[in-house]
Write a structure and sequence with these properties.
Strand order of the largest sheet: 1-3-2
Structural class: alpha+beta
Radius of gyration: 23 Å
Order of helices and strands: HHEHHEEHEEEEH
Number of strands: 7
Strand content: 5-15%
Helix content: 25-40%
Bound molecules: zinc ion
């Protein structure tokens, strides 16, 4: 079992050429970006090095630990502490690189390791190189969510997941109800998840509640939680009313 690969300049260029061919044929149309092999000073870029290392012997790729990847990158960038590129090249840039964890669908990869799964499809859910928050085209937004409510997953015009007798209708939901319903603040939500009481919450792109939008809702919290909040705020405002002169 290999614990690290030695790749010379020539092999790096050959693997990169393979990446170019697959990228051109299968990935470019999805907006997946191929990192440049060289920077302006003629040095290999970190992104390209990581991709090349993971693509070694494609399609017979192997699991690569972050330590191994870091060791390889240090051959070119001696001051590298921690290689983050593999994760970024995956979900964000669209290369189907499996990052370790127990809940992966296609490959079993331990936490802290990576494996390139395929060069013939982009990372699942990757859409045309831009985050969905950059558009206000309603049809495009719904399509990016597979015509489902971002919060509960109920599908448009199908029976609602929690209320099967109700037909799911998708509406433009605010991510943050305190901001206008424009680019970057729209998620599709069903008529159940997009009700008036949702003005209490701020949601992320995945339809998950991430914070309170209405501070008054703190009144509904359990006493223990309110006490914690009080302690936090007491400390922040040094026990003084922030509005007192
Ligand atoms: Zn819903």
């Amino acid at each position: 079992m290999l614990d690290s690969l030695t790749l010379n300049k020539k092999s790096i260029e050959i693997i990169y050429k393979t990446l170019c061919e697959f990228h051109e044929k299968y990935l470019i149309s999805f907006g997946v970006k191929l990192p440049k092999l060289y920077d302006s000073k003629g040095k290999f870029t970190k992104d390209a090095l990581v991709l090349v290392y993971l693509a070694y012997d494609y399609p017979n790729t192997r699991k690569v630990s972050k330590e191994e990847l870091t060791k390889f990158i240090r051959g070119y960038y001696p001051n590298t502490n921690d290689v983050q590129q593999a994760r970024h090249l995956g979900a964000q840039a669209g290369w189907w690189i499996v990052a370790g964890g127990r809940d992966n669908i296609v490959l079993k990869v331990e936490r802290g390791s990576y494996q390139l799964y395929t060069l013939e499809q982009p990372y699942p859910g990757f859409k045309n190189g831009h985050r969905i928050s950059e558009t206000d085209n309603w049809e495009e937004i719904k399509e990016a969510y597979n015509f489902r409510c971002a919060t509960c997953g109920s599908q448009e015009n199908k029976p609602h997941f929690h209320w099967p007798a109700t037909k799911t209708i998708l509406q433009k939901g605010h991510m943050n109800p305190n901001k206008p319903l424009i680019n970057g603040n729209i998620i599709p939500q069903c008529q159940k998840c997009n009700r008036a009481d949702r003005n209490r919450w701020v949601y992320d792109e995945k339809g998950r509640v991430i914070k309170l939008a209405d501070g008054n809702f703190v009144k509904n919290f359990d006493k223990e939680v309110r006490e914690v909040i009080y302690r936090v705020l007491y400390k922040e405002f040094k026990g003084k009313n922030p509005y007192a002169k």
